[in-house]
Amino acid sequence: MTTPGCNALCLAALALTLAARPALAVSVSPPQQVGTISSASLSETSGVIGSRSLPGILWVHNDSGDSARFFAVNAAGALQGQFALSGATATDWEDIAIAPKPGGGNYLYLGDIGDNDANRSQISVYRTDEPLTSAGGTIAAGSYQQAHLQYPDGARNAESLLVDPLSGDLVIITKTPSGQIFTAGSAAFDTAGITQLTAAGSLSAALNKPSATDISPDGLHILVRDRSTTAYLFERAPNQTVAQALHGVAIPVTLAAEEQGEAIGWAADGHGFYTASEWNGHGPQPLYYYSFSVPEPTAWQLATCGLLTWAAGKFVARDRSPRRRGI
């Protein structure tokens, strides 16, 4: 019998075992209302993400019609402060993301990617250091970066942005049932020019109109939702890109019924996620939390891991024999 600390072959074998049984590898609880977003400043909540620096704080923002700003709310949805990006524009901010900053700390990413009429010649993503206070303030023009992005074959509407915490790559999913995937590297923030997005296929499962996405802090679990009660969870295997994971098995997740579900974002500890809605003329909206867990490998899975490792070891040893290598 091997243990969870087995070698790389064992881990790969276990990953294959779990990938073959994705619906049994995760658990998502029913929605729990933990608060209400009631500030009139947040009547069009379009993005939510758990702060990595401030326990109990969520970062949120509005979509089109607001200025270039985002907000801090507590885990009950109460407004704590607002942060304005001086000199930035907000044509149609649609999603927010967070990822580690090289050298320590985290970046927040604000996606000005909405384009209902599909007529924007370029879209933008803003990147700024995650604030270390929830009290609000102004972020000077020199303290944030803007990535100017362009689709390779014409404008599209999108509301879903995530940033891979393992690579720093940007991932945008279009607001179409096929959910087309486009990517750009972090180097897009290092140039004043336009970076062309790279097409990376489509979601393996159809959503009516994808309205938000997010990836867990460890980079292994990806959520994509639409405005209804439908979301999908995609599990990322070792050495996969985010796009490759989004081509894989889609595990259905049922969300709470919301007026206009626009936001989904992981908690900082990766043990759950939040959803939120625009008011859509119906007044303050609930903030929901969903617990998430990945069960420990069973004895059967560990035994399978050991058997696969033994077989792989035999194959490698056989392949390395002098006769096999033609020596």
Characteristic terms for this protein:
327 residues; mainly beta; globular; disordered C terminus; five-stranded mixed beta sheet; 23 strands; Tachylectin-2, Chain A
Task: Describe the protein's architecture and organization.
With 327 residues, the protein is mainly beta. A hairpin with a 6-residue loop joins strand 12 and strand 13. It has helices spanning 8-20, 242-246, 299-319; strands at 27-28, 32-37, 45-50, 57-62, 69-74, 79-85, 93-100, 106-112, 123-129, 137-139, 144-150, 158-163, 170-174, 180-184, 194-196, 198-202, 212-215, 221-225, 230-235, 250-254, 261-266, 272-277, 285-293. It contains three helices and 23 strands. The chain has two domains: 1-25 and 296-327; 31-294, Glycosyl hydrolase domain, family 43 (Tachylectin-2, Chain A). The longest helix has 21 residues, at 299-319.
Summarize it:
The protein is mostly beta strands and 327 residues long. It is built from 3 helices and 23 strands.
Layout of strands and helices, then pairs:
Layout: H1 8-20, E1 27-28, E2 32-37, E3 45-50, E4 57-62, E5 69-74, E6 79-85, E7 93-100, E8 106-112, E9 123-129, E10 137-139, E11 144-150, E12 158-163, E13 170-174, E14 180-184, E15 194-196, E16 198-202, E17 212-215, E18 221-225, E19 230-235, H2 242-246, E20 250-254, E21 261-266, E22 272-277, E23 285-293, H3 299-319
Helix pairs in contact: 1-3
